[in-house]
């Protein structure tokens, strides 16, 4: 868990409502925003057969989608509109559990550019992937 101050339940509900408009992440994939704070988000995903590849493992695109959604919540909620400029995913282990978690960490928050690292783990503590995102803050 992070030492970031988390927003209260009413603010989390506001964030869930806003990011629930990301229909692919929330409805098609099933990602749930579990916590939100300033420059911080934590999400979860209950795995099922729609998330697996031909070998029965979690599809890489599912893991990346989860990281991307977590980046979006971390960098956009109550902040300037931010878009991803670059990202890099590192797959470091196979999920062994039935649930994934993603958690963001702000690395840099500049005037026009931000950098985040998103860690993906399962409920058993298996480190599955980490993703770095560089975002550009758009002018309002």
SSE order and pairing:
Elements lengths: L8 H11 L3 H7 L2 E6 L2 E7 L13 H17 L5 E10 L7 E11 L3 E10 L4 E11 L3
Antiparallel strand pairs: 1-2, 2-4, 3-6, 4-5, 5-6
Description:
Helices cover 25% and strands 39% of the residues. A hairpin with a 4-residue loop joins strand 5 and strand 6. The mean pLDDT is 93. The chain is globular. By secondary structure, it is of the alpha+beta class. The protein has helices at 9-19, 23-29, 60-76, and strands spanning 32-37, 40-46, 82-91, 99-109, 113-122, 127-137.
- Helix/strand-derived category reads alpha+beta
- What's the pLDDT, averaged over the residues? 93
How would you describe the shape? globular
Physical arrangement of strands within the biggest beta sheet = 1-2-4-5-6-3
Summarize the structure.
The chain has 140 residues and is an alpha+beta fold.
Can you give keywords for this protein?
six-stranded antiparallel sheet; globular; single chain; 140 residues; alpha+beta
């Amino acid at each position: 868990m992070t030492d970031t101050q988390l927003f209260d339940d009413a603010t989390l509900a506001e964030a869930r409502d806003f990011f629930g408009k990301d229909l692919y992440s929330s409805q098609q994939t099933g990602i749930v925003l579990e916590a939100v704070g300033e420059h911080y988000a934590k999400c979860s995903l209950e795995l099922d057969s729609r998330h697996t590849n031909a070998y029965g493992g979690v599809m890489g695109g599912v893991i990346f989608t989860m990281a991307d959604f977590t980046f979006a919540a971390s960098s956009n909620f109550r902040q300037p509109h931010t878009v991803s400029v670059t990202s890099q995913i590192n797959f470091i282990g196979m999920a062994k559990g039935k649930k994934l978690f993603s958690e963001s960490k702000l690395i840099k928050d500049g005037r026009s550019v931000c950098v985040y690292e998103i860690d993906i783990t399962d409920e058993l503590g298996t480190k599955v992937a980490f993703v770095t995102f560089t975002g550009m803050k758009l002018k309002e």
